[in-house]
Design a protein that fits this description.
The protein is of the alpha/beta class. It contains 7 helices and 7 strands; from the N terminus they run αβαβαβαβββαβαα. β2, α3 and β3 form a beta-alpha-beta unit. The mean pLDDT is about 90.
Length: about 180
């Protein structure tokens, strides 16, 4: 299928998108987000707070990541707000994926090729913490039309990452993959 091997992936150009997991409790969700990050060749994942890390060879993460925890760059931070502030200093635009007052509908958002983004995904029950939402540059919301007003965090990650990727994928063609 013409897929990259691990070494090629590690040295390849990445989409200018970092994911921040804000107190995600499910190991399966963490693994699924790693797999999505690999599929779209994201820059990195920052695991915050109670979010588990793959360093302990956790079976649940590996089961859903299918090895992506070995390819995707990741780090851990105890405090999500400090992470957001640090990334802002590095020039990132911080975007929380959350239903809040004045959130931007995901289907109307067009990311800029000139920016680096960090997308914050929240806890399965409580979402992105209010302090993190307040520290973000803005929030995106996935339009929903049914009786439920939330999606699983790994599903939300996949939808949002796809929207970023379809607008930013030209970075792979600028100087080759």
């Amino acid at each position: 299928m013409g897929r990259m091997d691990v070494e090629q992936f590690i040295h390849s150009r990445k989409l200018p998108l970092t994911l921040i997991l804000d107190n995600v409790r499910s190991l399966y969700n963490v693994g699924s987000v790693f797999r999505t990050a690999d599929a779209f060749r994201l820059e990195k994942i920052i695991l915050c707070g109670i979010t588990a890390t793959p360093e302990n060879n956790l079976v649940e993460i590996h089961k859903t990541a299918l090895g992506a925890e070995e390819t995707v760059s990741w780090s851990y931070s105890k405090d999500t707000v400090e992470t957001v502030i640090d990334l802002k200093r590095q020039g990132y635009t911080i975007v929380s994926l959350e239903q809040v007052h004045e959130s931007v509908k995901l289907d109307t958002f067009i990311p800029s090729l000139e920016k680096k983004y960090a997308l914050v995904l929240g806890n399965e029950v409580h979402g992105v913490s209010q302090e993190v939402v307040d520290a973000s540059d803005f929030s995106l919301e996935i339009p929903q039309f049914g009786t439920k007003h939330s999606l699983n965090v790994s599903v939300s990650a996949g939808i949002a990452v796809w929207e970023f990727a379809r607008h930013l994928e030209s970075v792979f063609h600028q100087t080759g993959q």
